[in-house]
Design brief:
Blueprint lengths: L3 E6 L5 H10 L3 E6 L4 H7 L3 E4 L25 E4 L1 H9 L3 E17 L15 E13 L5 E5 L7 E4 L4 E4 L11 H12 L8 H16 L4 E5 L3 H14 L3 E7 L7 H11 L6 E4 L1 H7 L6 H17 L2 H4 L4 E3 L4 H7 L25 E3 L7 H10 L4 H4 L19 H20 L8 E15 L2 E14 L7 E2 L4 H14 L3 E6 L13
């Protein structure tokens, strides 16, 4: 068995948070759908398994299940919420609907004399986050109940003999006071794993893997100017030197003046030999009259590949294409039967054509953005690049709701530039995860001087987050919002109303499309 954790996803909105907490404890992990081929699970050779929560009831006919062999891999298994009930179901315990559902905060009582390994050093009556409507009513003798809450007599079960453990609450969410300690107990005290997952080790292994994979061949890198592709450019340069061909495409969907500004920084600051391609008219023509965000992403992904293919006319045949795909991109772009419903196609995952002539090089495919930022710092990348806000691969096309046009792009570029300028003026930019402006296909009546206007509505979106998987809206200062709104309405012809988005993720997403 290897020093890593397998997380099986049964549809919980918190599954990605389990992965985050495990990574924060410096243990590598991956999320698999519950219906993954079992041979692939064996081949992964986890040192521990975590079964996520989920919205189903285990006694329902169509509820997501997994082979009971998952409990016989010879490694510790932790079930969370639905995962606990699934363990009960697989172990011939009885699970039934509770008299009353339990959602929100509760207090965990550690049962005196239970000698719990999972709850070791956890304070009595700590806060836990509940979200369930079922309960276990029978369990075998070799399981001990070590924790309970006011409404759940069986909130924690443990079997050292079977190496199987379960909790009714969610230790991965911040609302659970001692959740990280509980996961630490499971990973280190029970499973005996080591906290060896760090970016310095990742860089060394990634460089070796890239060199083995591509040999002496050239690699085209899709360089967007964002954190992920810029850090990847630095990593690839370390690994393969002049074999790297970074390509930066002006899609016409970038921020104001971004193509010119970034080309200068790539060449003068980072000393990258970048191939710059101005292809705005091509992308705009392909997007004409397209309103569906999924179609936009697919079209842009295919057009990117067509544009990159033209580079081969200058540099010769290339067999490898690199891009800064991240783990959230993969998770949100892959749909399985029930859990982890597909949210959207990312241009560098679901937006790519099914058939390409290149082999993909995606060293960051298992990483979260904050981990990529750490790699950037390890590689000595300027904080200006490391701290850049995320920007979608399809660019402003997915921040202009409805059909895209040159006029709308210009309007949004101007409005967004004002908002970013004010973020820096108020010293907010580095304190938030992401900030941007959205142009709605909605017009409203306004008054400017003695004239009535009928122009577009813009929405400002600013969020706080750690990894982009969940996010809270940022309570921006009134003076900031007032100045941004006044400047946009007064300086950008085509917008006469500005709104502020106060939706968290979930239930919303960060981007509007």
């Amino acid at each position: 068995m290897k020093n890593r954790v397998l997380i099986l996803d049964f549809g919980s909105q918190y599954t990605k948070l389990i992965a985050r907490r495990v990574r924060e404890l410096k243990v590598y992990c991956e999320i698999f759908p519950f219906n993954e081929d079992f041979q692939k699970i064996r081949d992964f050779r986890p040192g521990a398994v975590i079964l996520s929560g989920g919205p189903s009831s285990v006694y329902e006919k169509k509820s997501p299940k997994v082979d009971k062999e998952i409990l016989q891999l010879g490694v510790p298994v932790l079930g969370i919420c639905y995962g606990l009930q699934l363990i009960a179901n697989l172990s011939n315990m009885k699970v039934e609907g509770a008299a009353s559902r339990e959602y929100g905060l509760s207090r965990l009582e550690i049962i005196e004399g239970s000698s719990s390994r999972l709850l070791r050093d956890i304070i009595q009556h700590s806060r836990v986050w509940m979200s369930h409507g079922d309960k276990i009513t029978q369990f075998p003798e070799d399981f001990n109940v070590t924790g309970r809450t006011e409404n759940s007599e069986i909130a924690v079960i443990e079997s050292d003999k079977r190496r199987v453990y379960g909790v009714q609450f969610h230790p991965e969410v911040v609302h659970t006071e001692e959740g990280k300690k509980l996961l630490s107990n499971f990973l280190f005290d029970i499973a005996g794993l080591s906290p060896d997952w760090n970016m310095e080790n990742f860089i060394k292994s990634a460089i070796d893997r890239i060199r083995r994979e591509v040999g002496t061949e050239k690699v085209i890198l899709g360089l967007s100017g964002g954190v992920d592709s810029t850090v990847l450019a630095m990593l690839l340069r370390e690994a393969i030197g002049d074999q790297l061909i970074p390509v930066f495409v002006d899609t016409g969907l970038l921020r104001k003046n971004e193509f010119v500004d970034l080309m200068e920084k790539f060449t003068k600051q980072l000393h990258l030999n970048v191939v710059g391609i101005e292809a705005g008219p091509v992308f705009l023509e392909k997007l004409r009259h397209v309103r569906s965000p999924e179609r936009k992403r697919k079209i842009i992904g295919a057009t990117f590949i067509d544009t990159f293919s033209g580079v081969e006319d200058k540099v010769g045949k290339v067999n490898y294409f690199a891009q800064g795909t991240l783990y959230p991109d993969v998770i949100e772009s892959v749909s399985v039967n029930g859990p982890a419903a597909k949210i959207k196609s990312h241009h560098n995952v679901g937006g790519l054509p099914e058939k390409m002539n290149w082999k993909l090089v995606e060293p960051f495919r298992e990483l979260f953005k904050d981990e990529v930022r750490e790699i950037g710092r390890e590689l000595g990348l300027d904080p200006e690049f490391v701290g850049r806000h995320p920007f979608p691969g399809p660019g402003l096309a997915v921040r202009i709701l409805g059909a895209v046009s040159a006029k709308k792009i210009r309007i949004l570029q101007e409005a967004d530039a004002i908002m970013v300028e004010e973020l820096h003026r108020f010293n907010i930019y580095d304190d938030v995860w992401q900030a941007f402006t959205v142009l709605l296909p909605v017009k409203s009546v306004g008054v400017m001087g003695d004239l009535r206007t009928y122009e577009n509505v813009a929405v400002v979106r600013i969020v706080e987050s750690i990894d982009g998987m969940t996010a809270d809206w940022y309570p921006a200062p009134n003076e900031f919002l007032k100045r941004v709104a006044n400047r946009i309405v007064n300086e950008v012809k085509g917008i006469n109303r500005v709104a502020y988005d106060i939706t968290s993720k979930p239930p919303g997403t960060i981007e509007w499309e």
